[in-house]
Description:
Number of helices: 25
CATH class of the largest domain: Alpha Beta
CATH superfamily of the largest domain: Glycogen Phosphorylase B
Low-confidence stretches: none
Number of domains: 4
Strand order of the largest sheet: 5-4-1-6-7-8-11-10-9
CATH topology of the largest domain: Rossmann fold
CATH architecture of the largest domain: 3-Layer(aba) Sandwich
Strand content: 15-25%
Shape: elongated
Structural class: alpha/beta
Bound molecules: GDP-alpha-D-glucose
Amino acid sequence: MGKTIIISNRLPVQLQISNGSITAVPSVGGLATGMKSVHKGGDSLWIGWSGLTDEEIPNELVKDIDKALAAHGAAKVNLSDKEVEGFYYGFSNRTIWPLFHYFLEYSEFELESWNTYKTVNQKFADAILEHADNNDTIWVHDYQLMLVPQMVRQKRLDISIGFFLHIPFPSFEIFRTLPWRKEILEGLLGADLIGFHIYDYERHFLSSVRRLLGLEVSFNEIYLENRVIKVDSFPMGIDYKKFHDAAKVHENTDSNQQSELQQRLNQHKKNDPEAKFLLSIDRLDYSKGIAKRLNAFEYFLNKYPQYKEKVRLVILAVPSRSNVPQYQLLKKEVDELVGRINGEFSTVSWTPIWYFYRSMPFENLIDLYTSSDIAWLTPLRDGMNLVAKEYIATRTHKTGVLILSEMAGSANEMNEALLINPNNFEQIADALNEAINMPIEEQKARNEVLQRRLERYNVEKWANSFMNSLQAQKNREAYNISKKLTDSLLAPILKKFEKAQKRLLFLDYDGTLAGFHVDPKKASPDEDLYRLLDELSQQKNMELFLVSGRDKDTFEDWFLHKKYNMIVEHGVWISRKGEKFRMLENIKNDWMENIRPVLESFVDRTPGSFIEEKNYSLAWHYRKTDPDFGNLRASELNTVLTSLIANDDLSVLNGNKVMEIKSSNVNKGRATARVLGEGDYDFVFAIGDDWTDEFMFQELPDETVTVKVGRQKTQARYFLDSIGEVRGLLQKFVE
Ligand code: GDG
């Protein structure tokens, strides 16, 4: 097994330069801890920016820095002041961050910072390429590096790449406003596995992929020409043990050994044992809803005045991105709000809000968590929110109440918390009241469940389950029954073909020999295809059949003059060597009168869809409709039809963006097996791309060479990735 390469904007170590020498100190952030099990020893490398720009690093220290980083299994990407400005403060934090958190009005679309984002992403990709071998596994983190997967993929087709997004992926309606939306999606699609915190983000992403790139998505898989990408949700956990153990140590520390902060907190508790501490901890970021929370606090104090002098709100706001104007404005707003509310409600013995604008050491964080009766977290949008999880982990006696915004990803797994809508002040005030009065037994019952879950699905589990899923994706091809028809697998087949006395070829048309067109009538054969089919069908000892679901008139137009053998309408009609079509199966079409109005009602309600009328079947096409809506309507139609046709000999075929209703007696499998039975063939070959071709793969005898176009599940023995590859293969039969 190869090594693992982790890539994130920042390295998990902090560089400190003092007195001309350099030290690298590991950082303690969630990601660094979470990745511990993945980033271990000599078989892993972490690539990222060191936090110092080119201008800040003295020339004579460059080598020392590399050495210091290497000791932590890390390598740096060099960035200039200007690059950090355009890439990090610019595109990442003035375009993507606000947009992905639904702050459309804060999102700036600047061509120059987009260009810097591309340049810097390329730098990260180059750093990976410099270190990566083909059997390595690459894990790219977060919104700053969304183009990296594709940049690496271009150079290394077979390398395994995973991507995890730590922030929300917005709904299509928001995402579509980004001028470079396609480039971002294509960048991400370089990965084999794309992970999100929760299913909603996954669903939004898949919807954008379908609508903006028009790619085929089936459940949580995206089908590209030559690869399948898996999309899944992996809710990030915390290092539960670290927080829980720290809280236990804290509990057993003598009061005179405790931090100054803790001693002050104790003092306040002693003065008024009934008073409650409410805590909120966030980076000072507009997505965290700090200003709204302050307004809600004011609302609460007015609605429940009995809590004046009885509750204290402790706000720890960690400085963040202070180069970005929106953050400077927010700082001002929060300063003013705290001042105004404290001015309005303070008494000589009580200040309602304690506001800390700074970062605190871990020890003080634990002081705050363990001393607070209620954690009150109200992000307007938050990918996950780890603070909520950390608070619960430190509650060693299982007391304490968590009030959490339903807009945080963590709300999905923390149903036992009091979940609120951060815009609903009435609800928030009532939740605070409920939390203050919640019986101890209820607090314990809720936290018991929460703790068990957090302990089980901790951050290490998160990292491992992502890596396992990435590995499984890599192995997928190996386990697939259907194998890619490579040159080495093809060689013995060609030999058999050459030696054969009588060959029979069944070729599906749409999606196999020719591409799809929104208007099926326009997908007519090109000159190259005619030439290829001419050469094939004129070979000695060769019977070639085009096998299609298409109507006989179209195939008559396109191919009758060529005298190719044809089976159309899934096996209703057959024509050999230019003869007129005759019926292969004796079937009725009187049912069509009843079914047509049903389809028409779906056409009326589904813009872009239409009915294709064949002699013995009806097809409802929805390739031109909005993809999500089309799929929805298709499953609705399926339900309606299934109940309608229960007693007739009819079946519904779900093809590629088409649903076809036809007699159950007819399918490509039955038709081809019949043809096969009429001769004595020693080489049989069948190829097709969709569900209707599976009938051939099933019915034809085992020794048939069956080939599926595309990587969806199939009964075929082999698969090819594209129409180009199909034609290449047929060309080899000619040669
Ligand atoms: C992004 C997404 C997603 C905070 N103040 C101090 C301090 N912290 C630590 C907390 C916690 C972390 O910082 C904050 O994590 P969050 O998850 O709450 O938020 P973001 O920073 O916005 O993180 C978020 C996360 O990525 C992971 O995927 O959950 O949605 O926005 O661990 O403890 N630590 C110390 N001093 C502080 O003053 N030592």
